[in-house]
Amino acid sequence: MGAAHRGAPCCAPACRSSCLIPAFHMIKDWFHPRVLGFLSVLPLSACAYMSQVGPQKGPIQNKESSYTLIEVKSRADIPDNGRSYGLNQPPPRLKGDSYSDSIRSRDTLRFIITDLSDLSPFYSKGEAFTYGPIEVPEDGAVAIPYIGEINVLGLSVARISSKLNEMVLPVSNTARVTVGRSGRVPRTANVIGEVKTPGPVPLERTGITSLDLLAASGGPTEAEHLYQYTLRRNGQDYLFDYKGFRQHAFSVEEGDLLSVSTDVSNRFYVMGAINKPTTVPFPVPNPTLADALGAATGFDERRSDPSGVFVFRKGNPDQVFTVNLKQPDAMFLAQRFTIRGEDLVYVTEAPLARWNRLIVQLLPVSQLSQAAYNIDRIGN
């Protein structure tokens, strides 16, 4: 009986109680406050370790077929220069010079007729006979008392005076006619958009060019290469970049509208393990990779991996350029590598950066578990 009973499990109540005591202490140890504190924050620490600011160096270099990876190790690997400027053409002339000294509609004229003969209808006891001011109508026909009607459009003031002196002879051969222009509605072109003083610009002299028009508005509010310049003439738009607008100056016509707007293609993006991820307007017309990194105030020394600097460029096909800035020669390449509009410069994170985040998360956990252990001891 005793031998047979020795190999079988103990079923007596006292025996079962003695078997449960070690198990109870094991469970109590697992639910110890220090252990619980560690286990409660461990998932969060794991998340901190797994999180990252973007793709890592390895996955980018083990590329998919959707883009072409180009490793920049020498000047031969650098692509062609960036954006080309100045390829625009000036608009055709439609109206000719907008300014002319000749009389046009809505000019204001004053006619002065002097005659010393008291038999003349223009005699006014020693004072000149004055007629006007008269605004020139659209058809240009102006009627002068006792003289008749004359069309003044396109004539100079001197020519009008000469013709009237001929026309007045049948009325009085002693009368003399002088014509003066007392006012005119200015012909204008307009400048709108991102300039310092938008609004109409009078065209009151000959030879006013597109550069004069821009200067009259105070010029762009920022560097000129950050804008595009659109001229609307007779319902047609003509687009210029900063260099084309400067090199191909053209004569301004009445009714021209110049619009200055931000050139959204003259910007790039800097992301990743850097001090200041940002969207950057071109600091110069053709910025380099060095300009891009400088605009982001450089690498984040705690997280960045200088051997993993990438330039993502949209195209057909898309391209990814990789530069190892841990190599001394790569510093010269960074100064020669031209950034294009809409490029994305990305700096990968160093492998140890994720471990650092894990350690930072675990340090408060150890302190919390120690505090829980102390409280537990006080309670016991």
Overall residue-averaged pLDDT value: 79
The CATH architecture classification of the largest domain is: Roll
Assign the CATH class of the largest domain: Alpha Beta
Identify the overall geometry: rod-shaped
What percent strand? Answer: 25-35%
Largest sheet: 6 strands, mixed
| Number of E-type strands | 16
The domain tally reads 3
User: Which H/E pattern describes the elements?
Assistant: HHHHEEEEEHEEEHEEHEEEHEEHEH
What is the rounded Rg?
43 Å
By DSSP (H or I, 4+ residues per run), the number of helices equals 10
N/C terminus separation: 46 Å
Strand arrangement, major sheet: 1-15-14-16-12-13
CATH level 3 topology of the largest domain: Outer membrane lipoprotein wza fold like
CATH superfamily of the largest domain: Outer membrane lipoprotein wza domain like
Overview of the molecule:
With 380 residues, the protein is α+β, with helices and mostly antiparallel strands. The chain has three domains: 116 residues, Roll (Outer membrane lipoprotein wza fold like), CATH 3.10.560; 76 residues, wza like domain (wza like fold, 2-Layer Sandwich); 75 residues, Outer membrane lipoprotein wza fold like (Roll), CATH 3.10.560. The protein is built from ten helices and 16 strands. A six-stranded mixed sheet has the order 1-15-14-16-12-13. Strands 8-7-11-9-10 form a five-stranded mixed sheet. A hairpin with a 2-residue loop joins β9 and β10. The N terminus is likely disordered.
What is the topology?
Blueprint: H1 2-6, H2 13-30, H3 33-50, H4 57-61, E1 67-71, E2 108-114, E3 129-135, E4 141-144, E5 148-151, H5 157-167, E6 176-183, E7 188-193, E8 199-202, H6 210-216, E9 227-233, E10 236-240, H7 242-247, E11 257-262, E12 267-272, E13 278-281, H8 289-295, E14 304-313, E15 318-323, H9 328-336, E16 344-349, H10 351-379
Parallel strand pairs: 1-15, 7-11, 12-16
Antiparallel strand pairs: 2-3, 2-6, 4-5, 7-8, 9-10, 9-11, 12-13, 14-15, 14-16
Helix pairs in contact: 3-10
